[in-house]
Every structure is written in C-alpha cells, then in structure tokens.
Write a structure and sequence with these properties.
Elements lengths: L25 H23 L6 H8 L3 H7 L3 H24 L5 H18 L2 H13 L1 H19 L11 H20 L10 H13 L1 H9 L2
Helix pairs in contact: 1-2, 1-4, 1-6, 4-5, 4-7, 5-9, 6-7, 6-8, 7-8, 8-9, 9-10
Length: 223
C-alpha cells in the first residue's frame, strides 16, 4: 500500500480510468476506485489531519469526483474507517508472513516488528494517517487507532511461550502506546524512511514485560 508519489495517478500504480464507456469490467472499476479513495484518504489526512480534511480533498487526491466518493461512502468517517481497516490488514499480513519459518518467539517478534517498520518506512504517510492523526480527531476515530494497536500487539504476542509472563491489560496498552509514540516521533522528525533503525528498541520494549529485561535485551541485540 503506497499513498505517496507526485499525484493521484501514481498512487498504488493505478491509472486514471478513461472517461465515458470504457468497457472495463465492473469489478475492476470498483476495486480501482476504492483503492484510489483509500490512497486519497491516506494522503489527505497525512497532510492536513483528520478534522481539516474535507471530502473534496479526498476526492481530489484520489482523482475522482465527489459524486464517486458518495457512491461508496456516506461520510468521511466511513471512508476513514474502511481505509484504516485496509491498512490494518496490510500491516498484519506483512507481519504474519515475516514470522513464517522463524524459530523461537523472540525471533518471530523481531521478524514481525521488522516487517512492520519496513512497511511503514516505505510509506511514512501511513504513520501520520494511522498513528498520529487519530488521537487529535478524538471520538470513534481515536478508538479505531486503539483497536489497531491492540491488534498489532496481539499479532506480536502470538506464539509466546507458556512460561512467559502475562502483563496486565493496562501494561499491554502501555506497550502499544509507547510503540506508536516512537513511530510518530521518528516520522515527525523527518526520519520516516529510517524507521527500521528502531527495531532493537522496539524488540526490547515489546519483550521486556513478557520475558524480563535481561532476556529482552539479549533478543534486541540480535535485531
């Protein structure tokens, strides 16, 4: 998933659909337009923030009309939620795939975090869209971010050994919040493409509550 580039036509590698009766299958048109709207939502929110983003901004960034937007979504919030879900599925799938073939939970966590950082470094707009903008938006938008963080942490915790400690729910929320804060801080400093450098710090952050600091530091040094 990539919302960057010089214009809407370059996002996702999707060409602008020709006007009129182009004869393309409806399934292709729907997929094309929904993906363009997702890319437009990410780009607009990353640039302006959630509250400042208007539906006209999303449509312009996507290279579609407002009428096309309303053909898929009744509100800006609905488009945001749909796009955030697509982002979540993209990140979680990348993390799960990276862990395949790894031996040991520590190695799996390193691989999953590495995949997360690589995906976000390839498109720092995702950091601003999914992690930085929602808290300022508040309400259900902020709640959707918390849901995303919970899912990311559950992905990381998958396969943990039976002897591992189980942090309290509050502690797990703290881990997820700290992870998001590090991502946002790095991106805000103009270092979004260098997110993979956070890997040792994030490995230690995630593993310490489960395995203790000493074991977590050993795993982090391997990152």
């Amino acid at each position: 998933m990539n919302a960057g580039g010089e214009g809407a036509d370059e996002r996702e590698g999707l060409p602008r659909l020709p006007p009129g009766r182009h004869g393309l299958p409806r399934e292709f048109v729907v997929r094309n337009q929904r993906e363009r709207l997702a890319a437009g939502m990410i780009a607009a929110v990353a640039e302006r923030g959630y509250h400042q983003t208007k539906i006209s901004d999303i449509a312009a960034a996507a290279g579609v009309s407002r009428r096309t937007f309303y053909g898929y979504f009744k509100t800006k919030e609905a488009c945001f939620e749909d796009t955030l879900e697509a982002v979540a599925e993209f990140l979680l799938a990348a993390m799960a795939k990276a862990a395949e073939g790894e031996r040991g939970w520590g190695a799996e966590v390193r691989a999953r975090l590495g995949a997360l950082l690589e995906a976000l470094a390839a498109n720092p707009d995702l950091v601003r869209f999914a992690f930085a903008a929602p808290p300022a938006a508040g309400g259900m938008i902020a709640a959707r971010r918390r849901d995303l963080l919970d899912r990311l942490l559950a992905n990381l915790a998958e396969g943990r050994p039976k002897g591992a400690r189980r942090p309290t729910e509050a502690a797990e929320h703290g881990i997820a919040g700290a992870l998001a804060a590090l991502l946002v801080e790095k991106e805000a400093a103009g270092e979004g493409e260098e997110l993979p450098r956070l890997l040792p710090d994030l490995v230690e952050l995630v593993l310490t509550p489960y395995l203790g600091r000493e074991r977590a530091v050993r795993e982090a040094r391997r990152a």
